[in-house]
Amino acid sequence: MTHRPSRLATTSAVLGLAVLIVAPVAQASSGNVAVPAASSASTRALNLMPAKIRAGLDIRMSDRPYALCAASNITPSTRTTYINGVKYRLGTGLCPIIKGQTVYNASLQGTRPTVKGASTVWSSFGGPATFAQYSAETGWTVAAAKMRLGIVGAAPNKGMANFWGFPCAVTTPVTIGGVKYPMAMCAGPLMENPDNRPAAYGVLMGTDAPTSAEIPVGATTMTNGPLAGLGNWLINPFMAASIAQTR
Predict the structure, then answer these.
(1) 185 — phi, psi (to 5°)?
(2) Residue 1 falls within a domain, yes or no?
(3) Cβ neighbours of 176 (radius 10 Å)
(4) What percent of the chain has pLDDT over 70?
(5) Is residue 13 part of a domain?
(6) pLDDT over threshold 50, residue 230
(7) Separation of alpha carbons 234 and 102, rounded Å
(8) Secondary element (H or E) of residue 40
(9) Within a domain: 125
(10) CA nearest neighbour of 182 among 82, 65, 22, 74
(11) Single pTM value for the model
């Protein structure tokens, strides 16, 4: 995958990563929430995940295709990975493929050379006006993002997941209103935050997923580490003043 990256230059832009929790995403399946998705796509996505990941924090922006999973509901698997020495259970989720401006972690993506060509894509964050998304109540729709807050582990919630910068397998498009929307099945860690540190139960979480989502993609309030203090998710990383282009 070729793209022209641009680095986020200011502290506010780096902290602005958290607003992407409210970015649009498609809904995948977990527990009693059913979504039509081939199991082989899940296997392909999980096979792209390495057994060990060394994650840093090198935040960049680019204009390219990406899988937007900030509101997906995740299905747990029996597979695991180690991120910076911590063991995490992996899950998979169905996400729409978007072409446009995205924020990504270059240090993460540098660990997965298997993501290349038309059959794979990175999960990442962005802010399109509308997106293909799924809920058990409405099925597939195309709508704007709608962020909500919740407590990790408070029923029906059973956890959360980080799908920012992980591998995805391109799969069958979803047709909504006669229009085909490209989709990817993505893999990622459960109970891990976008700063690649463990998330905790009983804390505040932000997500675009509906309340029926048992394991939504999102992020919890981070009280330490490089992304500490992002509980309000208010800073916009796409503000032109926050971006310094590098060619």
Answers:
(1) -95, 120
(2) no
(3) 15
(4) 72
(5) yes
(6) no
(7) 17
(8) helix 39-48
(9) yes
(10) 65
(11) 0.77
In a domain, 229, yes or no: no
In the three-class reduction of DSSP (H, G, I as helix; E, B as strand; rest coil), residue 14 is classed as helix
In this structure, what token pair is assigned to residue 31? 């527990």
Tokens representing residue 7 in the block = 């680095």
Q: Which of 43, 194, 164, 153 is nearest to 95 (CA)?
A: 164
pLDDT tens digit string along 2-59? 444 444 433 333 323 333 333 333 333 333 344 444 458 999 999 999 899 988 888 8
| Cβ contact 23:70 at 8 Å | yes
β-bridge mates for residue 217, sequence order: 161
Domain span at residue 144? Answer: 6-222
Instruction: Return d(Cα 162, Cα 69) in angstroms, integer.
Output: 9
Residue type, position 70, single letter: A
Q: Closest by alpha carbon to 43, among 191, 193, 158, 167?
A: 167
Q: Into how many domains does the chain fold?
A: 1
